[in-house]
Amino acid sequence: MNFYCSPLEIAIDYNLRQHKTKNGWFLYLDDGWIVTDDFAYKGIDSSWCKLDFSNGFEIRTNQYRDFPIYYHDTCVTNFMAHTPQLPADGKVRWRDSKVEVTYDKNFYPAWTSTQLNFDKASDLLFETLCSNVEKFAKLNNKTIYMPVQNGIDTITARSVFDYLKVKYETFDLPKTKPTLSAIGEKLCSKHWGYFQIQEIPNSVVVTGFHGDEWILRNPYYVHVLLSNRGHDIIDVFDNTEHCYMKQYFENYRKKCSVKNAVTTDQVRTQICNDFQIWHLNSTYFYSPLKGRNLLDLLNADNETVIGQVTDAKLSKSVIEKCNPDLLQNLDSVKNQTDPIYFTN
Length: 344
Known about the structure:
Elements: E1 3-6, E2 17-20, E3 26-29, E4 34-35, E5 39-44, E6 47-52, E7 57-61, E8 70-72, E9 75-77, E10 90-95, E11 98-103, H1 118-139, E12 143-148, H2 152-163, E13 169-172, H3 182-188, E14 203-206, H4 211-214, H5 219-227, H6 233-238, H7 246-249, H8 253-256, H9 264-272, E15 283-286, H10 302-311, H11 313-322
Parallel strand pairs: 12-13, 12-14, 14-15
Antiparallel strand pairs: 1-3, 1-9, 2-3, 4-5, 5-6, 6-7, 7-10, 8-9, 10-11
Helix pairs in contact: 1-11, 2-11
């Protein structure tokens, strides 16, 4: 789902296909797009992009898109970061050769003063993931692949597929970094997620991407959340002898030692602008661990937040409900059995 679009014809690499629209725009696209006289479209229900050139030029996407958008007067792209980046709640279009940016006023849910205890947060996570997977499975017509991986997020996603009896095929992660297409290698230079995937043509690959960020396990985001409530995440980890995130937290200790000046509103914005991976040629990627309702987990009470950021207790509660047998496969610490190339 990669594109470079401009009213100017350019020479571009990465084996992209060129299309010229009836109103004079040049489209450079990776494989998998449906191109008509009025629009180009690619994606699945949870992650899609429509390039609408029926009247000027406009980028349309699902509400919480998976990819960045960079734009200026004569260009829009999602893989060449040399122009201003559109915020996640922004929309961009061209009318009479002039660029217009607007914002979705209903993008972020309203804050509530009611905190979620563990049971309510667990129910929210379980119900949201089940709803996401049900909707995906109902509309999907591609072969689904699931990596045999022992991280908490992949196992959480897999357990929901099992609970809903959605069929998938498993595959082992390669021992060495797979070779990607030219555009895939380009994406590796800016987006760490592409170091962790392989292209499987005409398929949907289920992943655990977004789990840390959207489900209260990114140490920095939780540092901001807890410090705004008067708690120190460094003390939390130092006073916890063993937990799933113990070793991983050391990557964030220095960042979390700085006095926080970030608001919870700003953290929510960062979550929605944290772009990790999107469809690549005819390989589609799907993670149920993202969505508007999951932003409400930022309202979880302190005990629930701490239990999740240290030991993934919310995520484990979903696995227990969906397929508890998978818990025996779970790594004891984050990234324990990941291939070495996952770390770039």
